[in-house]
Every structure is written in C-alpha cells, then in structure tokens.
User: Fold MOSC domain-containing protein from Massilia oculi.
Amino acid sequence: MEAFRPRPIEALLTGRARMIGTPGTLEVLSGIGKQARQGALWLALDGLEGDEQGDRVYHGGPEKALHHYAFEHYSHWRAWYPDSAAPWLAGAFGENVSTVGMSEREVHVGDVFRVGETLVQVSQGRQPCFRVNLRFGRPDAALALQASGRTGWYYRVLREGWLAAGDAFELVDRPCPDWPLARAIAAMFPIDAQAPGLRADWQQASRLAPLAERWRMTFERRLASGRIEDWSLRLNGPPA
Assistant:
C-alpha cells in the first residue's frame, strides 16, 4: 500500500434541512448548506449527529453517511463563479468534512480510513443534482460540478464513534489501488461516450466490491444497453 500522509479535518460541518429555491417556481427542501461545528459529534451508520437531508431517497443513508469535499477546490469555483449567490466557504457544497491535501486523485474507491474513533470506507463519488443550481443561483452549476470531476465523495461507516475537527484521516487499507476516485468519476460521467477503454472501465468498475451498489448497477446497465442514462432531471430538476 502506497504511503499516505495523514490529513486533519479542517472543519466538521452539519446542516438542518430548509427550503431553497424560488417560491412558486422551483423550491425544495435541502440540507446542502452546512455550518462548522465545535467539539466532537457522533458518527453513526446512517450519518453525522445533527445533520439533515431534504430528500432521503437520494441523499444520506448508509452508503452516503459522510460527505467529504476538498477545500482546495474552492479557489476554482471562486474564479468560475465570482458572483455566486452563496459564499464560497467550507460547507457550501453540503460537505460534512473539509480537508486540505485529499482530493479525488489521492483518494481511491474502497479506501478505509481511521479518523477519530471511527472507521470509514470510501463508497462512491457524488452525483450532483439541481439543488446545487439553487444553492448558487446558477442554472449550470450542477453540470459544471459534474464535468469538473471535483465532485467530492461519500463514506460508509464501518465503525461508529466520535469525530471532531483536528482528527486526522489515516489510511488503513486500499483494496482498489488502480481505482482513484478520479477514474471512477470519469467513468460515471464520461466526456466522450465513445472514448477508447470506457467500456472496459465500466466492466471493471461494475466488479469493484467496495463501490456502492447503485454505481455498480449503473455500470452494469450501461454494459447491457450500450447507452448512458439521461441526466437532465437530476441536473436541471423538474420542468417548471
């Protein structure tokens, strides 16, 4: 297993679900806005103490118990969207954990980390939805997040426990050394659906045991149908 330098949690964040969007046009319940919390919080199998999601069908749950986003990505978004409707501060993307030095290129599918009292495993990347558009006041924000590959990722909890800012992520196991998250995300959201090697990546990804079942099933469906699913409802929301 390659060397991994432990990275401390810069901010541990939670948020309550509230209505976002434009009343009478498109308004939904969402917990995307997170605030930094002081002290230790309990991380259970289904999420972090005090955290809420507006739609539990597609957000939260055991395979998305903890959302991690690299703070260094924020400079990219500040440059792209300087007039954002929300401030570019940790928690803006709905992440529970903000760090420096861990990105989709350094973190792999299935990585197991010890952090605080907990043990967590990388389960999947984020699949951005239209709530990102509502959050930042940009109709293209979710698509831009997806296309950038800077989506962040989720953990499943292998051991519950207390977690706090300052606790460091220590790599315990790397069962998929050939699968940095950047590769899995690129396979999920390909720029070119006919790119050489893409189908082979789908086949390999569908067999990655630590990868969330929904991602594996998506790759299996693509292999069977030869088609990529329509993302418009997820990225744009329901029609007005």
Summary: Residues 7-175 form a domain with the M1 Pyruvate Kinase; Domain 3 fold (CATH 2.40.33.20). The chain has a mean pLDDT of 94. Residues 213-225 form the longest helix (13 residues). The CA atoms of residues 130 and 237 lie 5 Å apart.
